[in-house]
Each structure stands twice: as C-alpha cells, then as structure tokens.
Amino acid sequence: MSKELSYTIEEVSQLLKVSKLTLYDLVKKGELPAFRVGRQMRIDAADLDQYIHNQKTHKSSKHQAPIVDLQRSEKVESNNIIISGQDMVLDILGKYIEKHSSYNPLRSYTGSLNSLISMYNGEGDIVSLHLFDGDTGEYNLPYIKKILVGHSYILLNLLSRKAGFYVKKGNPLNITSWTDLKQNHIKIVNREKGSGARILLDEQLRLNQISPRNINGYENEESNHLSVASVISSGAADVGVGIEKAAKIVGIDFIPLITERYDLVILKTLETEKLIGMIKDILTSRQFKNEIHALGDYDTTHTGNIIYETY
Questions:
Q1: Better pLDDT: 100 or 18
Q2: Rounded mean pLDDT, 170-197
C-alpha cells in the first residue's frame, strides 16, 4: 500500500471500503493524519499503513489488559469541521469560515440524504440539503424531522436555485415535463442514490405514477451535476436532472421545473454554539450575499433566515 506517496480521501475510501464522511471524521478527531494541497485533503501512504497496523494491533489485543497512552488519553480537540454537499457556494462558505475563525473547513461531496444520515450517526458538522418531499411539496424539513430524531438542530437557508432538465441544445425531443420521461425513445442519465436530484426525480415519478422500470436509462448514474450535464452534451443521453448553473457551464439547454430551497443544518450542542453564531453572521453579511449573487442563477433573498430550530 506504500507504493504511492499519498492518497486522496476518495482513493482511501475505495481502498478501505468506507464512506468519505467516515474518513473525514477520523481526520477531524485526529486519528488519521492528513494534509491539504489547496482545498484537497491528502493522506500519506505511511500514515494510512500505520493506522491500519494500529487497528490490527488493537483487534489482536482485545483480550489483553488495555494499554493507556497518556499523551492521547484526553479527548482530541480539533478545529476541523466537515461541510457536506457539492455546490460551489459551499467552497465560498468554507473560505469565509477560514478567514473569520480558527476553524479548518474540510469538504465532503456526499449527497444530501447520505450526509444527513451520517450526521445522525455523529459524522459531519454542516450538511447542505435540497431534499424534495412529494407529499408536502416542502424541501428538507420533512426528512430532517424523520432522520435527526433525538437531536437538537437549526436549519438555515443558504440560497434558492432552479432545478430541472438538462437537454441538448435546442431541445430536439421537446422534453418539457416529468411525464415525457416515460417515452421509450427518451434516454435519461440519473444521479446516485441519496442525492437531492435523485430524490427529486424519484418523488416526481411517484407523484406521476411512473415506474422507474419504465424509464430508459434509469440505472445509468453519475455522481454530480456537471457529470450529468456532460453526458447530455456528449449525446450519450437525452435528459438529466440538475441545477441551472451546471447547464450553463457545460453549454447545454436547461428546462426549469422547480425552485428548490438549499439549506444548511447544524446540530445544536455546547460545542457548536460558536460555529452556529459564526455561520449566521456569514450568511447574513452583505459581502457574502453579494459574492453569491454575482455568480448568477442563485437567489439570496432568504439567505441566513432560520427555517426551523429545535430547543
């Protein structure tokens, strides 16, 4: 395993067959050393080998008297915080956090639902969400209430943005509605399970009583908006679901279908009081809103508003 000098979080995730959020949590707790190249986290091969060796040693010694490491007996304090989600606005948020505090923001590109489940399990500090609930027509809160049971949390609006179809230039197949997807000659490219775009599609198929089995290309998955848009641009598929920004970057047409609310959820604990206060200040600052607005395709009207809070 030491042939490479270092690994990305993605590569270690594949090697150990664990989620990227699990690795970020190990880094955050100081159990797995990491370093940054720009905004990318990397792990030395030697450190990874040592971590694996330590786990094997611990396992083989489980019936022996515990060995106490006095230097590590106290709780490891870390300023690392994990921000989950894929939108480029989260990179800007990370920049503001780094500039105005001693926190060290780490980025995880895991989808909304999987990140929320990881937060329930104690992994992740700031989770971004765009999860559509077909029964209520509401975003995010129905999922949070079901998943973060027993936790206290705050839900803050980050921005609003358009979601809809990516189609080829000129929309040659005239794809304009969810029911168009059931036509056999139309091939889609999907997002991965747990992503907000995948849940939006699945909820709309359910509401329109369309079986995924009748959707040509439903099993073809990509892991982010840009990849879906690129597949459409290449001609390998006719339509995909995503946000407006990626369509403009790739140079394809976009058919808006819904305005989605993109929110941030943070657990409320004694340890996160300072973090929550800082995030509120950043989101409501004119400078942050102006920077987001300058990107185009984002609505910051409600940025920083408290959507829901438990006590």
A1: 100
A2: 97
Q: Which residue has the tokens 């980050």?
A: 158
Give the type of residue at 119.
M
- What are the Cα distances from residue 52, in Å, to 14, 60, 81, 268? 14, 12, 24, 33
CA distance 79 to 129: 23
Average pLDDT over residues 290-304: 95
With the CA atoms of 235, 240, 246 and 251 taken in that order, what torsion angle do they form, in degrees rounded to the nearest 10?
Answer: 30
Residues 6+ apart with CB under 8 A from 34: 9, 27, 41, 42, 43, 47
Tokens 């990179």 appear where? 91
Domains present along the chain, CATH in parentheses: 6-72 (1.10.1660), 81-311 (3.40.190.290)
Q: Which two tokens stand for residue 191?
A: 């997002």
Which residue, among 148, 125, 105, 109, has the nearest Cα to 19 in the 3D structure? 109
